[in-house]
Amino acid sequence: MRLLEYEAKTILRNYSIPTPDALVITKRFTPEISLPVVLKSQVPVGGRGKAGGVVKVESPSEVTSTIDRIFTLDIKGYKPTAILAEQTIDIKRELYIAILINLETATIQLMAHTNGGVEVETQTGFKVWTVETGRASANQTGEQLAEYYELPDQTFALQDLVENLYKCFVGCDATLLEINPLVLTDDNKLLSADCKMELDDMAAFRHPEWKFEKTPVNTSFVELDNNGNVATIANGAGLAMATVDAVAAAGMVPANFLDIGGGANTDSILLAFNKIVAFPNIQVIVINIFAGITRCDEVAKAIIAARQKIKDLPPLCIRLAGTNFEEAASLLSSENISTLATLDDCITKAKELIYE
Hints:
With about 350 residues, the protein is an alpha+beta fold.
């Protein structure tokens, strides 16, 4: 599983690996942005800069138009669902560093080059070290890396970087962690300006915290009709199918099938909202949850967050039952969000909202 840049950088920050300050823009949520800023399309392929998916914006009048253009820009078959808005940095040097697995020797290796940035793959003469757990290995490799980069005054920073990269790589079950470029700023700070990170899908069972856009577990999302007027959210394949069937039987057009799975939390459900509001003609969202492992209060928190963060969120027809229903009802009531008793009630209400 290859992560998007903003997802990878969130992980880096958790391991004390410095990155530029940044905010994430979605199609329904644009945070307040300080200029100048670099807007970066979040697609899982390289070549974004050449394709026009990385743009420096300095004028307030250019912000909205640039965001709109990047969201519609196709890069190698991908269009972004998010844009990273990152502080501009004054660059003195661009370097390359990566950690990966050498399958032949069954070791973890650190690879570096003194010239990072675009087209690094055309470079030759990469330097490679085998790295191991512990501060001693990090100190030795960091010292040699400082000598290789000809940055003796960055020895301590590079030793910390090597140690934290190794911990990040192992702790996340990564198969590749590449920082390109690793930037030395004008004020002599090392920053991870871009990051490619790939995780081992087979290790997903060890990481319930993984809630990435490409996370291959738990959530099942199928587009049924891009012009559908009703989006559905349910848990469990059977309940999700029943919800879609009920919408269609009532003469409305279901846009999607979405089973949020067992154990869904606020973040994963909010991600589901972001997927379905991307459909162009959604007039109502029907939410049908019979909570077991997935708790009603987690669904309620996601609904409240969606109302707060997603502009022009379509009306919601919500049926909740099961685990922690009372807590969910209290949370929703405090935000003046009503629930309905049955799926039939949701369908009737959806028809009223669309046709009356």
